[in-house]
Amino acid sequence: MDLLRQLRHVRRHWWVVLVTVMVALGVSAFLTVRAQPRYVASVTFFVTTPNQGVTDAYQGGLFLQQRVKSYADLLTSDRLAQSVVAENPVGLTADEVQRRVSTSTEAGTVLLRASVTDTDQTRALKVTETLAAKFVELVQKVETPPEGKAPIKIEVVSGPRVSSSPVSPQPVRNLTLGGLIGLVLGVGLAILRGVADVRLRDSAGLQRATGSPLLGEIPYEGSAKSAPLIVGDAATSSRAEAIRKLRTNLRFVDVHEPARVIAVTSALQGEGKTTLSCNLAIALAEAGWRVLLVDADLRRPKVDEYLGIDAGVGLTDVLVGDVQVGDVVQRWGDKSLLVLPSGSAPPNPSELLGSKAMADLLLALRESADIVIIDTAPLLAVTDGVVVAVQADGALMVSQQGRTSRTQVAAAARSLHAVSVRLLGCVLNMAKMPKAEAYQYEAYRVVAAETPAVPEERTAPPRHADGVNGVSDRTQELTRLPR
């Protein structure tokens, strides 16, 4: 995984980093408040011996540096701790005194420092004073100089003294360290969460999963739930503009073999395929195309609810031969948009959609409209969507960002490729639109709204061999289709 993808995971899961840092800071603050203040009392010794001559001074210095290391161990010995407790009882045992004593030496010198850390400032000072006195006494007792040599001399050159402020806890250091630890853990958790998250998060992942080009990204809008169609005020929204971009891209997917019968499907239910089918049909009709929208989701039809039409009689009744298609096709609005609702709920949708009657119907509809949009069932739920897509010129797969997993989308695409369905492309629905892009569109839309409208030359839609252009003529032609 490259660095850029890891940064995307961190940016997407920024709240994980924030929560982790806040928790780490909270824990650090809690431990800092609950910790007892600790004070340090220290004393510094200077180890020396009288000597004569430069040579003796050099050799004596090397000797004393070696002895200082031994004296450091002596300061933390249990024998010295017992002497301190016996000399000045301060409520501590010899083991407790021993644990509180620490030593340090400076390389190349004969200085030795002893420190006593305690929660009681006065007790730390008393222990240090007694420790210094007993240490000097003990060294004088155990060190017996060779005959003719001067004895080793230990002097206190600094202290004993105790710090006026506690050395721990240190709020600034603790909070800074806690924040850094929280930041590292948060970034790690964000990356781990991003790697473990198999849901679709961007258009690149959708393209890789389907192996098809991205034809559109439909941005998320809160108003789409109550007003799903791109009509009225929604016609100037960024969602409507994205549908128009999809319309343009779809028309130029293959200029040599344009798709006139398009099956719109998805991997799972609730990804917005029906809404997209309706809006795409509306956008195509606005551009002057004669569009027929067919609701082929016979199990859970929704086209009639979105468009507000009667779905009592429709596709099912045409396929079983009860009515002619021209009798049930309904005009929607003032656009060149015809709608064939689902009709009665059949007991065998898959068999009905895969019948010869369905193939004959699509062949007739192809000759009666410029573009036929078919809303089909989800691919992973039932086989209806595949059955319809096989008979169409191509399929358009819709996936909702953050809901469908890459595995599910890939499985849906494989089900289409397995029967040699032409997958025209994919659409990422309810995509998160960058704020900068949304701002640019809104700013441009306002300017465009304030500019006087100028008549725009529109390219006429393709004419059929019979030369008939009117929607009403096409409706009459649908009545002559075979039963």
From TrEMBL:
EC code(s) of this entry: 2.7.10.2
InterPro entries: AAA_dom, Bact_polysacc_biosynth/exp, LPS_length_determ_N, P-loop_NTPase, Wzc-like_C
Lineage: Bacteria, Bacillati, Actinomycetota, Actinomycetes, Micromonosporales
Reactions catalysed, as given in the entry: L-tyrosyl-[protein] + ATP = O-phospho-L-tyrosyl-[protein] + ADP + H(+)
Subcellular compartments: Cell inner membrane
Disordered: annotated segments: 453-483
Domain AAA: 260-401
Membrane topology: Multi-pass membrane protein
Single annotated GO MF: non-membrane spanning protein tyrosine kinase activity
Main subcellular location of this protein, as a coarse class: membrane
CDD domains tied to this protein: BY-kinase
Name listed for the protein in its UniProt record: non-specific protein-tyrosine kinase
Ranges annotated as biased composition (Basic and acidic residues): 455-466
Domain of life: Bacteria
Keywords: ATP-binding, Cell inner membrane, Cell membrane, Kinase, Membrane, Nucleotide-binding, Transferase, Transmembrane, Transmembrane helix, Tyrosine-protein kinase
Membrane-crossing residue ranges in chain numbering: 12-33
Gene3D superfamilies: P-loop containing nucleotide triphosphate hydrolases
Species in which this protein is naturally found: Micromonospora costi
A Pfam family per the record: AAA_31
Gene Ontology cellular component annotations, sorted alphabetically: plasma membrane
Class of enzymatic activity (EC top level): transferase
Similarity annotation: Belongs to the CpsC/CapA family. Belongs to the etk/wzc family.
Record-annotated Polysaccharide chain length determinant N-terminal domain positions: 1-87
